[in-house]
Amino acid sequence: MSEVAQVMILGLLQGGVYALMASGLTLMFGVMRIVNLAHGVFIIAACYVAYFLFVGPGWDPFASLLVTIPLFFLLGMVIYRSLFPRIEGSQRFSEMTVLLTFGIALVVEGFLSYFFTGTFRSTNPPYTTDAILIGDLFIPTAQLYASMTSLILLLALWGFLFLTRTGYAVRATMQNRTAAQIVGVNVRRISTIAFAIGMALAGASGSLISFLYPFFPNSHWRWIAILLALIVLGGLGSLKGAVVGALMLAVAAAFVSDMFGATWAPITFFGALFLVLLIRPQGLFGREARV
Fold first, then answer.
1. Is residue 1 classed as helix, strand or coil in its secondary structure?
2. Domain range holding 101?
């Protein structure tokens, strides 16, 4: 029984970080219908920002959030305004965003590989080797702190979406872009803000995973595959679905890892992606497409 509880704890802590990583991706799709294949590479870029702040000035990865969040928010505004308005009127906008963000991912990966090579890196603050013991159970402090920080940021995102006028406009645009534009919402401005928030969440995620997992420029493909599985399970465009899907699949992966070994854990995400697309394509909380 204690082993089951231990695996549950590890899975939930991991799922909290996954939820933060997936929330930015699903927000972009929900508001602008952007399938952002570059989300993972920007998370890795944020890992490098946190890493060099750690080895240079000696900043704790949590302190680097003060840099990565505003930096990637501004970067998101620049990227959206520079690239996406050119294809807004296209009838195949979502399909074109796949190609555009795939190209962005390759370009950013190339820059990271050129400047930082393929060496595995990670930040190593003292708490990465500590744990809290409760009877037979242990709670890794690094994962606990990262999960709690993710929860705080997700609550801040919820407060923004449900308690501010701009948040109302974002949710209105997610529900019906055309109707929101008819009632006076500046859809392009809201799209820019939503994309920038998604990028800021990617920046925050990079700071957190910089001490949880080793990273190198090409590792973003692993993350984008996992994140796509999470948001497809929860329902594309559903923030609640992203959180629930992250927790469910992280716990499932933790049990698979415990029973069959860590190398089998990724198959949980890809197997879930296959089953969801086969049985319920709209996901747990997504809306079924109608003609």
1. coil
2. 21-220
